[in-house]
Amino acid sequence: MIEILRTNDLVLISLVEAILTGERVRYFVADRHMSALEGAIGMLPRRILVDAQQESRARRLLAEAGLEAELRPADSHDA
Asked: Which one is the CATH code of 2-70: 3.40.50.10170, 3.30.70.790, 3.30.70.890, 3.40.50.2000?
């Protein structure tokens, strides 16, 4: 899986999930439950990961939704 977005913004995560779910793009939200360790202060970012075969499609869908600035660079596959 490839990381395409990293954020603390729960609203943004919900929007991305809605877009990807609506378009049937497989994704995973990593670190979603880290708030149990951090005390629910939202310090640790959550990561959106997509299947490698669907990465370009996911990036295109999110860019079309106006979220291009939120995306990690395509060459930063250090997740």
From this structure: 3.30.70.790
Please enumerate in sequence order all residues whose Cβ is within 8 A of that of 10, keeping only pairs 6 or more positions apart, or say none. Answer: 42, 46
pLDDT digits (tens, 9 = 90+) for 29-78: 998 766 555 555 556 889 999 999 999 999 999 999 999 999 999 875 55
d(CA 9, CA 53) in angstroms, rounded, equals 26
SS3 state at 46: strand
Instruction: Read off the tokens for 39.
Output: 């005390």
| pTM of the shown model | 0.81
Q: Which of 13, 62, 59, 4 is nearest to 34 (CA)?
A: 13
The amino acid at 17? E
